[in-house]
Design a protein that fits this description.
It comes from Micromonospora mirobrigensis. The chain has 2 domains: 289 residues, 3-Layer(aba) Sandwich (Rossmann fold); 67 residues, no CATH class. The protein is built from 23 helices and 10 strands. Strands 1-10-7-4-2-3 form a 6-stranded parallel beta sheet, with helices on both faces. A 4-stranded mixed beta sheet has the order 8-5-6-9. It is globular, with a radius of gyration of 25 Å.
Length: 474
Amino acid sequence: MTFLGMPARAPRGVGNLRGDESFPDAARTALADPQLRRNLRHATTTIRGKTDRVTAELPDWQELRAVGAALKAYTMAHLPELLERLEERVTAAGGTVHWAADANEANRIVTELVRATGQQRVIKVKSMATQEIGLNEALAAAGIQPVETDLAELIVQLGRDRPSHILVPAIHRNRAEIREIFLREMPGVDPALTDDPPALAAAARRYLRETFLSTPVAVSGANFAVAETGTLAVVESEGNGRMCLTLPETLITVMGIEKVVPRWRDLEVFLQLLPRASTGERMNPYTSMWTGVTAGDGPQAFHLVLLDNGRSAVLADPVGRSALHCIRCSACLNVCPVYERAGGHAYGSVYPGPIGAVLSPQLTGVEDNASLPYASSLCGACFDACPVKIDIPAILVHLRNTAPHPRSERAAMAAAAYTMDRPVLYAAAQRAARLARIVGRRGRGLPPPLSGWTASRDLPDPPSQTFRDWWAAR
């Protein structure tokens, strides 16, 4: 049986939560790409500016953040009963609920549901959960073609690329690159296509319209699910989600178990927080909600797949569980100096940036993503930007304490602890520190093997007088 509280992590070999190399190695490659850095800087700066303006309009923005955080904390504390209530309401409304312990089980459930319809193609609403479990790859392996309908996700799919941002998956691409992808991969595109944004959007619209009208099966994620009513909600900006959620005969929704909210009224809070924090809009252009099946209106078969995939293990950690409060707004990415320079691909996970640095290691187990908790300067900008007040820096420090450390680092820390515990040795070490400017690289580093630490950090100048010397002189 699948039950909350099981210690299982997201399985290896499936999905997109683990990278092929560590963050430092992947970031080094990204930092060497000046075009990528220009694209990222332009996009994040633009979104930050819009977000700052619309949040400043609300005199109760901080109160809204506090209420959002409280609602999420309540949800995590009552998750089992809320999910059971959601299942009851969805079933009563004519839907079918499936419980998936991990990515393998979720992929199997969705594949079997699509096969049962006899169809060979599905249209997809942008979904982080389906990216997380590698659903597109699983469907393709079963002979089923998934078609992404979100413009940015379509760009990523056609470019055989990977998303690099939670909200704007193709943030690392500029319009000239997108034009080349469309010319190379999009069927029936006009060879005279320019890189003017309206022209690119029109080309995608023509391609997708036929797909919408000829594909009777859709797969979506969900931003929220209301336990009180069994209602699912998707918010988006383009209208593609509305098409996928209303035109097909069969709708399959894959949702992480943390997305549930207790009451219908709770949406009042999150539908104010999410658009302002994510896209800098006062409200999102399209909010689609549905409750089960309604005869003659919309899909006539609805399936909800509730996905665990390591979330119960995260829930079991009193410190790390607040990472499950995330509403996928991407505000933390847009203010993070590390993300802005390294980009999303360096994180090796479908969840990049500060939230990915705390969520991915917990879903997979820290040993599988040991470098991610260090992909941060701990500046705290992410905490200030988060609409539900997730203390990401505190979780990062917590995960660093649980991450495996190299033998040399453990030996160095043990030596430091030994020295600091002995006043005479500590005083001698302070005197020796004054020599760092002489022996270090450009006066700011340390000699090997300690140079590994100062290769990416400036060593602070030692004071001309230590506290001990000051105290002794008085």
